[in-house]
Specification:
- With 402 residues, the protein is of the alpha+beta class.
- It has helices spanning 5-14, 24-41, 46-56, 62-74, 80-94, 110-130, 134-140, 143-160, 164-183, 189-214, 217-224, 227-230, 245-248, 258-262, 274-283, 328-340, 382-386, and strands at 264-266, 271-273, 287-292, 297-300, 345-352, 355-365, 371-380.
- It has 17 helices and 7 strands.
- The strands form 2 sheets. Strands 4-3-7-6-5 form a 5-stranded antiparallel sheet.
Length: 402
């Protein structure tokens, strides 16, 4: 049995191909879909666009829509900001044609946990609409944890599969919601509830179907790794029924460390084993991250009291994608200045929920002055800022009295 046109296009994209590889027949359909998206951004009446869409497409996959938007961004036809601004309109046009949601019934799978959080969020939204209570809003604000996990766990894996544009758009929408939550303006209550609900629709109709198509069992295991550190919204317990092969196999093997303890590396001054170096980094009173000359995250220190969430999924990720879309131009400005030799250091300081954080970026160069990467150093200096006078004697007894 042959593929239908939509099945053919969907399978084509799943193989990692682009519209440039399609036959003229399929290319015509993709061009129509691109035109529909661009018409939306040009302000064409939404009802006219819906009618045009229904006439041209009987069904469509979330992956197809996402890939088209990705191409429009990459080719400069639309900016991420333009797509972000109107992505709610996109969803209203495409939602009816998108397939029914898939579900995951095995506890412990990341998708299972995302589903549970969204289900509880919908319940809180409904209760808040029926009778507004500040405590309900405070609880609903925990959806930020859900977003942080998506940004640090799922998005890096999807980016490695060529799905960066839609992730960037969703992150921008997350930040819009975070801003509304922070302002806690009761006049914006309906807008906030609608925004969270629409984001749930985007996840269930676009993000998760694409993730389920693109990610292997091993990929989902990588998404899961580090979830506990970020946490879960609404007190949800993820469970542990799901046992991917990676966890049953590779992760359960005891790692031999004897060689790492014995063999010493010659450093600029002195010698240390790999384990000693690792332990030193883990006990530094600062967070450090290293980005190589290709802007890829290669390392972060696994310290106990980390200021910002980190996940093994970020290793190999472009550092620009580790920041909200609204901050990426600053990241690029710093990297450009470091690479050109214009600057050596960039620093910031800010109050984050009562913690005063100092962040510094250092250009790393080899012995010939060639740029080889950037070191990020973040430190909680709340206590340091309070220090006054002198302490010249050991005084452990009064350490916790200040």
């Amino acid at each position: 049995m042959g593929f239908s046109k939509d099945e053919y296009v969907r399978s084509w994209f799943k193989k990692g191909n682009t519209t440039e590889d399609l036959t003229m027949n399929q290319l015509d359909r993709i061009k129509k879909l691109k035109k529909i998206i661009i018409d939306l951004h040009d302000g064409k009446d939404i009802e006219d666009v819906k009618r045009e869409f229904k006439e041209s497409f009987e069904n469509i996959s979330a992956d197809q829509i996402a890939q088209i938007e990705q191409e429009l961004i990459e080719k400069g036809d639309l900016t991420p900001e333009q797509i972000t601004k109107l992505c709610d309109v996109h969803l209203s046009v495409f939602k009816e044609a998108l397939p029914a949601n898939r579900t995951e019934e095995t506890s412990g799978h990341p998708f299972y946990t995302y589903q549970k959080e969204n289900k509880l969020a919908r319940k809180l939204i409904q209760e808040s609409r029926e009778k507004f209570r500040p405590l309900k809003l405070m609880k609903l604000a925990q959806i930020e944890i859900h977003y942080t996990r998506l940004e640090n766990q799922l998005f890096p894996i999807l980016e490695s599969k060529g799905f960066s544009g839609p992730c960037s758009i969703m992150w921008a929408k997350h930040d819009d919601i975070r801003k509304m939550i922070k302002e806690r303006d009761t006049k914006m209550m309906d807008e906030l509830l609608n925004a969270i609900e629409e984001m749930i629709d985007k996840e269930e109709k676009i993000l998760f179907p694409v993730a389920l198509e693109k990610l292997s069992d091993d990929d989902w295991a990588r998404v899961k790794q580090g979830e506990e550190e970020i946490g879960f919204a609404f007190g949800i317990k993820p469970g542990n029924e799901w046992k991917p092969m990676t966890i049953r196999g590779i992760h359960s093997i005891e790692i031999r460390t004897t060689d790492l303890d014995k063999e010493k590396l010659n450093l600029n001054v002195g010698k240390l084993t790999v384990n000693q170096i690792n332990r030193i980094f883990m006990h530094l009173p600062v967070d450090i991250s290293f980005v190589n000359e290709k802007d890829e995250v290669m390392y972060y220190s696994d310290i106990k009291d980390r200021i910002f969430p980190r996940s093994p999924a970020v290793i190999g990720r472009k550092v620009q994608n580790c920041h909200p879309p609204k901050s990426q131009h600053i990241v690029n400005r710093i990297l450009e200045a470091f690479k050109s030799g214009e600057k050596e250091v960039a620093e910031f300081w800010m109050d984050i929920n009562g913690i005063f954080v100092h962040i510094r970026y250092f250009a790393i160069r080899d012995e010939r002055g060639k740029y080889v990467g950037t070191l990020e150093v973040s430190q909680d200096i709340t206590h340091i800022r309070k220090i006054a006078g002198q302490r010249r004697l050991l005084d452990w007894n009064n350490e916790n009295k200040s």
